[in-house]
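This part of the workshop introduces the protein records we will be handling. Backbone structure tokens are a discrete shorthand for how the chain folds in space. Once this layout is familiar, the rest of the handout is easier to follow. The record below serves as our worked example for the rest of this section.
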Amino acid sequence: MLYNIHHKQTKNGRQLQKSGRESEKMEQKTKVVMVGSAGFANHYLDMLLDQADPDLFQLMAIVDPFVQKAPKYQRLVEMKIPFYDTLEEFYQHHTADLALIATPIKFHKQQSITAMEHGSDVLCEKPLVTDLDDIPEIREAVRRTGKQLAVGFQWSFSPALLRLKQDIIDGVFGKPVLFQNFTIYSRYDRYYARNNWAGKLYDAAGDLILDSIATNATAHFLHNIFFMLGKDIPSSAMPVWMEASLYRANPVETFDTAFLSGEFAGGCRFQYVTSHCSDFNRFPILRYELEKAVITYDANAEKPCIEARFRDGRVVPYGRPDDTTAGYDEKLCFMLTNRKNRLPIPCTQETVVPHLTVCDALFDYVPVHEFPRELLYRKEDQNGGKGTFVKDLYPQMWSCFENNRSPYEAGFDWAAEPTKVELTGYQHLKLPRRREG
């Protein structure tokens, strides 16, 4: 703790009374330990230090053996925030109501379990883990400790999308028919050079990472398809099967372009089209078709808004996925206040299982195809950074999305026949947890 107001001594009665009120106020705050200090952890620190209501929380410490490299290191030093190399070391000196975990993926499981075993709720950035076999151990830790674990798929905490999901559950739109998402995030060379695991199956130490566009950059939107079809707010729907074709233009071990489709037990189909390899950015576009209405959202529109357009002509707006009542990420606000509320977590270790299952099955069963070299070209961004892109990829992807087809069905010369994967009964990733050799 940075200071202990209980021990403040004074002969001034009014000061003692004030100290008591301040002490009570401090006790009401959510004690937070930040695990990680760079990358997305720096984003959490932006929110904690500059956006969140300081009356809601007390930042107890930073856990990161490399905190000296953090963008906010000097500021944290000036604030006299303690630093620790490990969570175990932190808990020898402090307690925390909430652990925010934004570290390399391979640490997520054990850090989440350690935090819960020491009495902390957890908000862990996505992906929670890379291997389905890790879920039972996390599930057992949640059961044993009675603590709450949230996974940072922010669209799952969006008030607009939660209202929409509840209406889907309540049957307002009838039976789901086809859920689609289209996203292009242009990525230049620096994206893959920013660390030692971007686009890799394993990191430099040989630990399983499985970093790809589907597990990282546009994972939110694939997950959202499964999330919105869940039978209740904290659940997601599991596809029965999928067909997938994966491609890459960049020198990565995984893939930077994906076309997925499949079907759920109730008959609803899905399609997910995404790439880093077009120089034309298209932020998420979703189209969720149900019997009575079509739900659309285009983040590229002048005034983006989720809208349900009923067959009878009615249009019901729901707002934007990133609308926030707090002024900062809803997932963080939710967890800072949930110490008292103890509301069910919208996105937990159970909620992410369908997305994790699909991604693990991709790596186990679906080959990655190289885009033909004659289609590749180099381009500089406005800062002089270079990237590799595929000629005419955007209009071809958009045609696939509009017609609910794979590139192979559309007849593109570069396209490979999709691989069909039965997901019922798939429970274990076959790739080794460590790189062999």
Q: What stands out?
A: The two ends are 46 Å apart (CA to CA). Residues 1-20 have pLDDT under 50 and may be disordered.
